[in-house]
Amino acid sequence: MSNNKLPVASHLNDSEYKLLLTVYAKHNSSIGLEERAQYNLSEVTKVERNTDEICLEVYYSNGEWFKYYPNGTWA
């Protein structure tokens, strides 16, 4: 999987990357079509591990960011 990772997420291990894609898909499907344009994977500018809260912090080009959790939720 590591060869096909988004450049901003290339530092993630395979399970973290799978978490990113899984929660992203759920998050993306929960928002309206017009809003989705702002939250495409191509709009992700940074992904950071948050080891204290055990989540990934996903930053978008519009300035918004979300925490993606292993249980499939986001905040």
TrEMBL record:
It comes from the Bacteria. This is Glutathione reductase.
